Amino acid sequence: MCNEAARRTALNLIRDDFRKVRIELTFPEGLPNLAPLDSIRITDPAAIVRLRGAAHELVQRRWSWVGPGSGKGAGKPVYNFRSEGRSFTNTNTGGRCLIPLDGFYEFTDAEPLPGEPKPKRKDKWLFTMPPEPDGDHGAEPDGDHGAEPDGDHGAEPDGDHASGPDAADPDSRPLFCVAGLWRAGVSLGKDGTGEAWTMLTCDPGPDIAPYHSRQIVLMPREHWADWLGGTVPAADLIAPTPAGTLRVVPAR
């Protein structure tokens, strides 16, 4: 499942994109220094947006907490959560969030050369969204946690790989948001306890299915406010990404 992502979009552009859907971001801890990042990995801090009271806050928190208990996920980083059958309501100590990104990575087993043993390395693929033709990526709107982390990285690709400079060029990557959860008072391993977030997953859409048996939940822009508000049922908002939404290129 997704254990690495990218965000090169600057803070002012993130704020502009949220304003396009009538969400005014606040910064309770001050304006963060969001350096462009081609690689955000498990345990790294990254920006999330959440609703606290009446304010849509942008803060930086750690990706993943340490799984509790003695079951399958005990002691492992909870960086992905299955979305099926869960409500994900907002409370003072956790709830829904959005993770602003402009790329994420998946990994597949590398194809061996003829007569050679199977390589130990994996192929790495970068998923992005193609730019809008008119350059305007936003539209005006009309209108108990707990799970085991997802499993191993997925299947062999079998389809064509979309390409082109706009798929690989960081300056042309539109912002998108992954639906996630944040929690307070969770174990951060050697760093004690604190706040952290995880990405939700669902069945894969056609763009991702050749690479993995699950996908992170990409929340459509017109539903950002619905997701953060916590009043629309999760099942009404979470769905596989439609075909043609994403482009994929080999990651350098």
Q: How is the topology of this model organized?
A:
Layout: E1 4-7, H1 11-20, E2 25-26, E3 37-41, E4 45-52, E5 55-63, E6 65-66, E7 77-78, E8 80-82, E9 94-101, E10 103-109, E11 122-128, H2 165-168, E12 176-187, E13 193-202, E14 215-216, E15 218-219, H3 224-229, H4 234-237, E16 247-250
Parallel strand pairs: 2-5, 5-13, 8-13
Antiparallel strand pairs: 1-3, 1-10, 4-5, 6-7, 9-12, 10-11, 11-16, 12-13, 12-15, 13-14
Give a structural overview.
It is a single chain. By secondary structure, this protein is mainly beta. It contains 4 helices and 16 strands. It has helices at residues 11-20, 165-168, 224-229, 234-237; strands at residues 4-7, 25-26, 37-41, 45-52, 55-63, 65-66, 77-78, 80-82, 94-101, 103-109, 122-128, 176-187, 193-202, 215-216, 218-219, 247-250. The strands form 3 sheets. Strands 2, 4, 5, 8, 9, 12, 13, 14 and 15 form a 9-stranded mixed β-sheet that branches. A 5-stranded antiparallel β-sheet has the order 3-1-10-11-16, with no helix packed on it. Strands 6-7 form a two-stranded antiparallel sheet. A hairpin with a 5-residue loop joins strand 12 (176-187) and strand 13. The longest helix is centred in the N-terminal third of the chain and has 10 residues, at 11-20. It is globular. The relative contact order is 0.23. The model is unreliable at 135-168 (pLDDT under 50).
